[in-house]
Amino acid sequence: MREACDLVVVGAGPGGLAAACRAAEAGLDVLVLDAQPEPGGQVWRGEARKGANRLARRWLTRFAASGARFRPGARVVAAPQPGVLLVEEGSSSFAVRYGRAVLATGARERFLPFPGWTLPGVLGVSGLQVLVKDGFPIRGKRVVLAGTGPLLLAAAATIHAHGGEVLYIAEQASAASHWGFALQLWRHPARLLQGALMSAALISVPTSTDAWVIAAEGEGRVESVRLSVRGREEQPRCDYLGAAYGLVPNLEVARMLGCETSASAVVVNERLETRVPKVHAVGELLGIGGVDQALVTGELAGLAAAEQPIPVELEHTWHRVHAFAAQLALHDAPRAELRRLATPDTLLCRCEDVPMSALEGCQNLREARLYARLGMGACQGRTCGTAAQTLFGWPGEDVRPPCLPARIGSLRLPSDVSSTHTRES
Amino acid sequence: MREPASKATPLVTLRINGRAVTVPVGTSVAAALAMTDRFVSRADLSGRPRGPLCGMGVCFECRATIDGVPEVLMCLTPCREDQEVVTDA
Ligand SMILES: Cc1cc2nc3c(=O)[nH]c(=O)nc-3n(C[C@H](O)[C@H](O)[C@H](O)COP(=O)(O)OP(=O)(O)OC[C@H]3O[C@@H](n4cnc5c(N)ncnc54)[C@H](O)[C@@H]3O)c2cc1C
Ligand code: FES
């Protein structure tokens, strides 16, 4: 099966939606693909059904009216030749031939290993938050959150709003860095983050800076957490622990297409075009910047893709949110102690059960792959590769297709798409 | 921010490891798993239990057999009526 379009948008978070709206409204035939069952990305999870968030409602309504086509549950797995993507959808697959592309694949959490982090009930901070948005029964449950930055507070607010009891918020950053950052925040148009800060203050959860999780303990599931709180140790009992350290962009699709990256962000010009002609990147792919950055860069790329003039205000807004992203990166940098929590038998690679001790002597990710099978499992190093980057300073490797585990059949190019193959499909 | 109690939300009933679970439409299978006694999606190579970690299709800890299709991510799959979910743990 195949699809053709002027513009393919990979990812239906705020970045992808804004790009799709602008381009479709300008008359392009736009196809939007997302692995999730609904549009909205991470921050607007479930909003297509609930309509509780005004900003989300505005964009989702605009998207529905824009004329852009949306395919949910569609995962981009390979890019066999320029202008073609292979997509897996449920138990079938199809190819997309496109004129231009906007990559809006967003970000994931940075997990760092500590003893007990593989126990059921230990999740990411935002991982727990999105599960709660998806109907996770959190009412009456005791939750400890450990991590960094405004997402910690956003998660606390969501859990609280759904009846969960947030016992403790451990912010790894030092007090000085944290409050310096929080004060900066008010100067930037990060509406959601401001909201999160305020709601966290309102629910009055004990919060400490200079605090992090040392270990999770329990028989078969997490039962308590050992925390370091300004040099003292505390051990609250809890039902769930959310522990993660900021976000990192999902660069796999961009790398697979050959886009240049630098300092964990896709390199783009002022039209948000990557070094690969006709391929744009937006949102978290440009560096972690939240929903405002995603929207403004999405609009810019959508207009650029449709060869429309870019309004000056839009450019100004972009420069403002960009400054905010730089602040966030400084604040979110994990402190040194977090790199020393794992013991020799703590697993680093969760898919292949690779303990820290197995990496002795490895100099880089490639050696760790070859000698210890790090990153060779189902998630293809999305979790452990990112952790290894922080723990050992190993840079990420080039992505080889498929960029997500895929069935063999999904990787065959349909004959009506291929220009070089003449196989019957 | 608080949601109204799900008075108008339609419900669906699925089976997770043979056990019937009834949830509001829109609940993900990973979220429904937490309504069973064990929030466990698989066993690691030494047989220790694992549960969902990222909630967003990145970590692959939540893979299960859903309606006969193996290796489906529970966190990206909405619950449907009569769905059959089997975890490998
Ligand atoms: C779990 C999580 C929760 C968050 N919660 C908040 C919050 O409460 N408040 C806040 O301000 N910010 C939150 N953020 C930050 C958030 O990343 C941004 O605010 C915003 O969502 C970024 O928009 P985006 O369009 O760049 O990416 P996203 O919203 O992350 O959207 C990216 C989309 O791309 C899709 N995708 C990725 N790879 C593929 C592929 N190969 N094939 C098909 N589709 C793919 C994903 O399914 C996803 O829907 C959260 C981030 C995460 C990771
Ligand atoms: S919980 Fe990580 S992929 Fe589903």
TrEMBL record, chain A:
Question: Which Gene Ontology MF annotations are present?
Answer: oxidoreductase activity
Instruction: Tell me the SUPFAM superfamilies matching this sequence.
Output: FAD/NAD(P)-binding domain (SSF51905)
> Where do the FAD/NAD(P)-binding domain residues begin and end?
6-286
Q: What is the protein's given name?
A: Pyridine nucleotide-disulfide oxidoreductase
Origin organism lineage? Bacteria, Pseudomonadati, Myxococcota, Myxococcia, Myxococcales
Origin superkingdom: Bacteria
In its UniProt entry, the species of origin is given as Myxococcus xanthus
Which controlled-vocabulary keywords does the entry list?
Oxidoreductase
UniProtKB/TrEMBL annotation, chain B:
Q: What is this protein called?
A: (2Fe-2S)-binding protein
Task: Please give the organism.
Answer: Myxococcus xanthus
Coiled-coil spans in chain: none
Alphabetic keyword roster? Oxidoreductase
The protein's matches in InterPro entries, at most eight in alphabetical order, are given as: 2Fe-2S-bd_N, 2Fe-2S_ferredoxin-like_sf
Which Pfam families does the record associate with it?
Fer2_4 (PF13510)
Q: Which SUPFAM superfamilies match?
A: 2Fe-2S ferredoxin-like (SSF54292)
Q: Does the keyword Oxidoreductase apply?
A: yes
Q: Name one GO molecular function term.
A: iron-sulfur cluster binding
